[in-house]
Structure formats: C-alpha cells, structure tokens
Recover the amino acids of this structure.
C-alpha cells in the first residue's frame, strides 16, 4: 500500500515541474498514424493545453499504479472555469519530464 505522503510528494513534484517557464511535457508513444493516444483522448473531450497546465499546476494525485514497470500517477484538477479533468502521467526524474499517457474530462462533453 502506498502511503498518503507519496501522493503528496508526487503532487508537489508535478506542481514544481509544471510551473517552470517551459515545462517539459510529452504525450506518450506515437501510434502508427503518428498521433498519440493522449492527444486523441484530449481532443475527444475538448481538452486544450491550457486545461492541462491548469490541472498540472494545482494537482491532486489520487492514485499511483505500476504498469509495466512504470509508476502511473492519476492526477486530478480543474481549469480556471472549474471544469474537472483527469490525467494519467508518468514522471521521468532524469529530465523532469511529465509524460501524458491519457486524459479525460469528468463531464465528458
């Protein structure tokens, strides 16, 4: 079982990295058509980059799961209009990179 402090520490790391002047955010593996799953899902739910940054700059980490040796963090938050989002991310410490795996809006427009 993961302690509550790990969730708090992960949220602090995400917040710090996302608040940098040029945060290093990537969008996961490329699919055969050169798209990415995360960008496709963001587009389906009408999530833009500002929504992503708003969420990552004031995140709540609600779950951390091991998937194929990677710790995937479920990050929840809101944009400036109060719309709620969930992002699944990997944190790559060596580059202070936030890799977006998938995303959805809680209201699923």
């Amino acid at each position: 079982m993961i302690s509550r402090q790990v969730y708090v520490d992960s949220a602090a790391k995400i917040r710090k990295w996302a608040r940098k002047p040029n945060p290093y955010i990537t969008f996961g593996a490329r699919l055969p058509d050169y798209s990415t799953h995360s960008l496709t899902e963001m587009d389906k739910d009408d999530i833009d980059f500002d929504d992503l940054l708003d969420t990552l700059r004031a995140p709540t980490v609600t779950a951390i799961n091991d998937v194929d040796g990677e710790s995937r963090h479920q990050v929840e938050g809101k944009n400036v209009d109060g719309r709620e989002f969930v992002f699944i991310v990997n944190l790559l410490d060596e580059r202070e990179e936030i890799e977006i795996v998938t995303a959805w809006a809680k209201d699923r427009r």
